[in-house]
Specification:
This protein is mainly alpha-helical and about 100 residues long. It is built from four helices and two strands; from the N terminus they run E-E-H-H-H-H.
Amino acid sequence: MHDLLVAGQLYSTVEGSLDEGLIMAYVDGELDQDGRSYVEALLAGNAEAREMAELLRLSSTLVRSAFVEEPETPTARLSVVPSHTSGASRPSVPSRRMQRNA
């Protein structure tokens, strides 16, 4: 058993095991120096671990690229934004209550 610090939390893994969560934490930069050294040694000696790390990097890049553009704010779609100044009366808003038919 090997204990590492991942994003400030203690994480235990079996020595030499292929641990997807640990490799993802490495890809995301969430490991302390000991954790990075451990995963780098694992990657150096295990082709399957290197392949997993590459796939996780690619998927992480794809996910981040989906959020590159700034989302449109609701005010950007409005052509006129009403402003209320002191002393001005507010426009009346019709009631949304349903009226019963008599």
